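Per reviewer request, we include the raw input and output of the structure prediction for the construct analysed in the revised manuscript.
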Amino acid sequence: MKLSASAHIDTFCRDNLPPYDQWPVLRYDLAELDYPERVNCAAELLDHTIGRLGPDRPCVAAEDMQWSYGELLRHANQVANVLVNELHIVPGNRVLLRGPNTPWLVAAWFGVVKAGAVAVTTVPALRTTELADIVELSRPSAALCDHRALDDLRAVQASIPIVAYGGDAADDLVNRCPAQPDVFTNIDTAADDVVLLAFTSGTTGKPKAAMHFHRDVLAIADTFSRHILKPTPEDVFIGTPPMAFTFGLGGLVIFPMRIGASSYLIERATPTELADVVQRIRATVLFTAPTAYRAIIATGDVAKLRSVRRAVSAGEHLPESVWRQFHIATGLSIINGIGATEMLHVFIASAGDDIRPGATGKVVPGYEAMVLDEFGEPVPDGKSGRLAVRGPTGCRYLADDRQRVYVENGWNITGDTFRRDADGYFWYEARNDDMIISAGYNIAAPEVEQALLLHPDVAECAVVGWPDENRGSIVKAYVVLAPDATGDEDEIHALQDHVKAAIAPYKYPRAIEFLPALPKTATGKVSRKALRDLATVA
């Protein structure tokens, strides 16, 4: 495949794309996926939406501010001018973004994309060691960071300028922007120029950067959102996933702005707080994980969701019992779905009368999927196997040998075990690797193990997913202690606190069990299967 002439002066991303024979097959069967050769997705989502609907429509809001489309455009243009005029960013440079969901993070994202740079999105919960891995892989030329999340990023000690935003300092991005022009000529990027590096945990603990093009950003809006979600310009979107997760970027920025709708951003919220905000702003489209839906039912706050007409669940499997309880309480049918960072967003889902409770759904228009055996051959309907999918988006890892694992014979192999029924519905069964999905977060077991092993009281350890009614799974650690360790409740709390300080706190082991020895295979390796079997029968 011949790529278009790139607008990137810094060719790092193009240089580190996997060889084309390792790419998945890409499909553009729908007419709406026929994009021009030159396209900047920021211009499509913001400038062109204003051209169709005008600048005065509500666009993005939070507790302390509300911007129209015109106001977001002004701020995004000023951010782009800061990047180019003050930080000397050129097309193709990577710009790291770090912060909770706020309007200024949205403006920063659009500013980066308008300037032809590549957004490197990160979660504010990540610690210094995790950020260091991301910086090493992506080699950013600058970072825009929420003023409350600077410490861990500064501790990376990378030789890149870090500009804070959202604060009162004289050099804060918010205070720099008014000195810049509020117009900007968008870089004429190629549809197949990389615009986003989205990081996902690897099962070895080493992160992987999924590379997505400008056309990919539009494709997820023109497939899942257009055909399944079916939003209108009058919709008000809200949700809990961070913009650093592609589930959040799609659901809170790309989908509403593709249609001219608005989005309300919350930084953090308990299920009760989420329900309160939904009720107060009369949100109509809700994106969150099954854990939140379950908790809202349990707390009795479900009546506060009367304004919602579309509820979307992804990030982990949605149990049929939760779907039915929510449906009985609200009359709403939760749109279940499965997506992947490598695919950018959801590729299997159903809505309305097409929903079959308990099933993940059918293939989203524009995609195709099948279930394969261990040899890569399709299995009959009703039989379990590995989920394989392809469509207008697909896996392209940044300089990573794991590309060969994720892509087989042109198919993206998601790492999930599914079965398909005779009617084309896909039914989730399990993950088939060492990734633990807890309350919508992907947690790599080896990364937690590495953090535990840094504690002097830990001689050996292994981590697995443990079934949990509220979170789907939790992280459970089996620990062999050093000779002088106590092995009491205080020890458990000390190890948990240690992990929270070493890596993102949501990855800590919520359960720890001490063993005299870990089960081993005949070759001397830790038998994770034996530990998973313990979790299964518990």
